Amino acid sequence: MKIIKNKRWDMDLEEFLKKPLFAHLATAVGDYPRDSPVWFHWEEEKLWIIGTATDTFPKRIKNNPKCAIGIIDFNVETGLVLHVGFRGVATVEPFNTAITNRLLSKYLGPDEKNWDPRFRNLDNSNVLICFVPKTVVVRDQSYKKF
């Protein structure tokens, strides 16, 4: 995995990816790109994303595994703008409860009984997307507030 970063970036990528931020998964259908906001889990230099029975991005990935993923940490009050952009390939993998629980705990907390019912007891009707980045672009585009 090749990492390209600007001079201002001083955060550890692993620490950045532990934050409960939204990612945008870009896939393609024919000549048209599609964008899906997703939660993610970073483990062993792979991004993991849950796909449900109603999601269309797993089908798009099966047809064309080339993807891009963008993640931004933005704070309007402080002017913080951190951007991480991934380019790589994804595969649709069988559901894995352990990875899913690590992913959901990042966003919903460690105690499943406190989760929204939609996220409890997920099963094999779901899939996991395993995204393997080829390149990662990391940029600190923060600005000063006046």
TrEMBL record:
Tree of life domain: Bacteria
SUPFAM superfamilies xrefs: FMN-binding split barrel (SSF50475)
Stated name of the protein: Pyridoxamine 5'-phosphate oxidase family protein
